[in-house]
Amino acid sequence: MKERLQIHKKADSSAYSSKQSQLQCLRRATPTHLLNTHSKLGSNKPIVQAKVENQKFQQYQFEATKLQIQAKHGTITPEGQERLTVLQTKMNKSLQQGKEHSSQFGHSLSKMAIKRSDSVSIREIQPKLTIGQSGDRYEQEADSVATSVVNQINRAVLENQDAGVKNEQGKSEEILAVNNSADKKQKFLQEYSLAKTLVNGIDDTLPQDKILEQLFKNFVNIQFQYTMVSKSPETLLKGSPEGDCQTLARTFKKVAEEYFGIEKITIESIAKPFLSEAGVTPYQGKKPNCDDGKRWFFQNHYWASWNGKIYDVLFLSNKRTEADMAKQVQPLTSMLMPEQEYYETEKGKIVYPIVNKYSTVEVSIFEKLKNFVNNLGQFFSNSMSAIINKIRSLFAQNGNNTSGFDSLMRELEHDKNNSAIANK
User: Fold this and answer.
1) pLDDT at 153 over 70
2) Where are the alpha helices (DSSP H) in 243-383?
3) Are 130 and 43 in contact, with CB atoms under 8 Å apart?
């Protein structure tokens, strides 16, 4: 009885050992494209991984080949050389991983010799394990998964490459634009020698309003001669700094647009004669031309503007010139004026020329004189020319000399009375 029990124990032990041995063999023999399982854990992951690794290796090899060609012809950049080193390292690593996968998963169950000590089958040990044929639906599924993964990798690589190309193109265009701008500025300075003074010390990376303000202030350094005669901005910039307010405004616009690239600068003007209290200009040349240097009388006036800001280059002022506008464009005439011409302004001034200057008188005084002369005409027809000459003489001396006009009025009144007595 004891011997029978021992025989049964040996049989059970032998069967158990055989099962364990077969299970260990199967676990070591992880399936490749010849072995598939229905379970997720034992599915096609090794196949997918192998295909992805292979595709990645081919991608590395393709990119590395282009860089190697560049290196051969001496056109590779330092960044490209660094990238080539990284790719070679990745390729070596990929090859090593491929060898490891091959050694780990490359066994074929069809070539494995499994010794059985009894009648226990493989299905009894691992019922879900099956040996698939090449090209069956499991391998097709693995191919599909691998292809999807590789496509995602390739898309990411292409997107990165496209982004890199666009970035490089953007940098190239930016560098080209900077170079073109520098060349344009250099040519501008070569053509216009006086422009160097106007742009001196200006940082062209500043905001546009800051650039314009510094350019505006630099006009005081060009030794401009204010002649009240218009010249072209090209004449000024080539070394003849003279002209009028229009010359200055147009020069400001030309330098701002053509050298600094600041657009939408406009030239504004007052096209009608006017009287101004602007005071002296910061330039050499003419002083205020009216009432012995107290004020200006202009036939017109020009200034530049940008983004709502005033750049009156003649007076280096950011304020619009205050103007007492003439009521008419063309001068009026009167025999009482030294040159027989005058303008009446909106604020009650009479402006009239004396040689190359101007003078003013209050319109109230001018009207009194006109009325007085008209009334005296019937009494002093013989001496009318003498009276007019006296009035002109007073205007020529100073139109605002009210004491001289009062003295003339008393003299004329006295003559009028004497004439009336004589007639009686």
Assistant:
1) no
2) 245-258, 363-376
3) no
Structure tokens at 206: 């500043």
Q: Which amino acid is at 319?
A: K
| CA terminus-to-terminus distance, the chain | 191
CA 124 to chain centre: 78
**What average pLDDT does the segment 122-148 reach?**
55
- Fill in the amino acid letter for 41: L
Structure confidence at residue 176 as a pLDDT band (50, 70, 90): low
CA 225, 227, 231 angle in degrees (round to 5)? 90
d(CA 334, CA 329): 16
User: Do strands 357-362 and 349-354 pair parallel, antiparallel, or not at all (unpaired)?
Assistant: antiparallel
Q: What is the pTM of this model?
A: 0.55
**Which residues pair with residue 361 across a beta bridge?**
350
What band does 33 get if pLDDT is binned at 50, 70 and 90?
very low
pLDDT of residue 57: 80
| Integer Cα distance of 383 and 98 in angstroms | 129
Q: Give which of 240, 198, 242 is closest to 217, Cα–Cα.
A: 198
**Strand, helix or coil for residue 260:** coil
Classify 273 as helix, strand or coil. Answer: coil
